[in-house]
Specification:
Oligomer: single chain
Radius of gyration: 32 Å
Strand content: 25-35%
Structural class: alpha+beta
Helix content: 10-25%
Distance between the termini: 123 Å
Length: 326
């Protein structure tokens, strides 16, 4: 009997003990789950794709600053005016020399064929070549010689990238997607990708607005935020960004990239600047003062001959952009 009573007493103590420890066990489990979730969240944040060490390192000033007071409705600042982004070109220009150049409109992917126009009198008049190129839109125009020109764009059948080449000043063309191999181009429909002579690569910015090419290794982009990047190794590495505030058009001539800028405080028309290959410094070289109320759509050069196309108006320079006619 004594043994039985002792056993019952021990059972009661065990039950009271288990009731005492049970809340502590539950609290411990909750704390374990909270810590585990925090560690998992930290790991996911630390390895977010595209976030480098610099972007994950907290700024010392931000960690020590006191939390900002929440403004009342009357104190809430008005939103700032958003930065105007640069759109892809609507017109393309390719200069051959001081009198000869080609131009084409970007257009859209439709059943209408892209039209190539040529001038031999410095832009005073243009002759359209109505020959069907096989393209309905254009995103790159290049003149190799006065007779040899190529256009990269979208074909009119499947709206896929293709290349049309003429060796007869536009009297006839050969066209095919396979001809794009080894060609620089940027399709506005895929603005974060650039095709290089060795294949497609990620652009140095999210949206490429304009592309200027100076051979297999040298090329530059003007992004929609007007930041400039250039490469001298075929797109493996890029310089910059160099901010070109107010830039409207980018081209290449005479061992340097040239660009037109509107809104300059020192030029009432369109200011012309250049950036040498491998440099990140922009140097103003001239002012096209006749373009007071016009925005430059395209700029192109061959040696010291540089042309600007603004709407249907053309102005030319024979000294690298220092002086302009008209």
């Amino acid at each position: 009997m004594k043994s039985s009573k002792s056993s019952k007493a021990m059972d009661k103590r065990r039950k009271r003990g288990s009731r005492t420890w049970r809340p502590l066990i539950v609290v411990g489990l909750v704390l374990f789950v909270v810590v585990d979730v925090a560690l998992v969240g930290y790991a996911l944040g630390a390895f977010t794709p595209g976030v480098g060490d610099e972007s994950t390192t907290p700024d010392a000033s931000s960690t020590s600053a006191a939390p900002a007071a929440v403004p009342s409705a009357s104190e809430t600042p008005a939103p700032s005016t958003p930065l105007e982004l640069l759109a892809a070109p609507e017109k393309y220009l390719a200069v051959v020399d001081d009198t000869t150049a080609y131009r084409a409109s970007a257009a859209t992917c439709t059943a209408t064929a892209a039209t190539l126009e040529k001038t031999t009198d410095g832009g005073a008049s243009w002759e359209a070549e109505p020959v069907f190129t096989g393209l309905s839109s254009v995103f790159r125009l290049e003149a190799v010689t006065g007779a040899n020109v190529y256009l990269a764009g979208l074909d009119s059948d499947a709206c896929e990238p293709s290349l049309a080449v003429t060796f007869t000043s536009g009297e006839d063309f050969v066209q095919g997607a396979e001809r794009l191999n080894g060609t620089w181009y940027s399709d506005p429909a895929v603005p974060a990708i650039i095709n290089t002579p060795t294949g497609p690569i990620a652009a140095p910015c999210d949206v490429v607005a304009q592309l200027a090419v100076a051979g297999a290794s040298n090329a530059a982009v003007l992004c929609n935020d007007r930041n400039f990047h250039q490469t001298t190794d075929g797109g493996r590495t890029w310089s910059g960004p160099t901010s070109l505030s107010g830039a409207t058009a980018l081209g290449e001539t005479g061992g340097a990239y040239v660009f037109a800028t509107s809104g300059s405080t020192t030029c009432t028309g369109s200011e012309i600047s250049r950036i040498e290959f491998g440099s990140t410094t922009a140097v103003a070289v001239g002012c096209a003062s006749s373009l007071v109320d016009a925005t430059v759509d395209a700029i192109s050069g061959a040696g010291q001959d540089v042309w600007l196309l603004a709407d249907d108006q053309v102005v030319t320079s024979a000294d690298g952009g220092a002086t302009w006619t008209p």
